[in-house]
Specification:
153 residues, 4-stranded antiparallel β-sheet, alpha+beta, 19% helix, Jelly Rolls, 2 domains
Amino acid sequence: MTNCCDPCGSSGTSLTAGLVSLISRILVSIDAGFANLIVAIQNIVITGIGGTFTVTAAVFGPMVDMAAAALTNAYAAFAVCPADTKSITFSNQTNGDVAVSLDGGASNTLYLEPGERFTYQLYSNGLITAAIVFVKYGTVVPSLGYFRMYSVS
């Protein structure tokens, strides 16, 4: 009669030893190939029903800060977004409101109150890039803190 946990009727030690050996080899392979694994994750191609899809890892743009004292009442270029930017996060850590323009200063895209943070999902709005971000102070001249932006593409 066989045991439900030992269908072969053996003590199970050879099965356990085999699994431990297999797991050890997998761990060694993962450790040895970790750098290659990271590179491979950067561009994965999936082929299946419905076609071929490419999954590309996110690229984070540099975090850009502007001191409150550097903000003026006229739009000035603040940061350039990397190619294919999909989202931009703004953080107003000044004591005044800040206006942001994504069209070269022609219009006010948004206002951020002191302490406010906003993420603009360009991709979900059908856009892929924002080019140059322009900023200025709004109705209250800030004297303390900084305005920050970072992007993901």
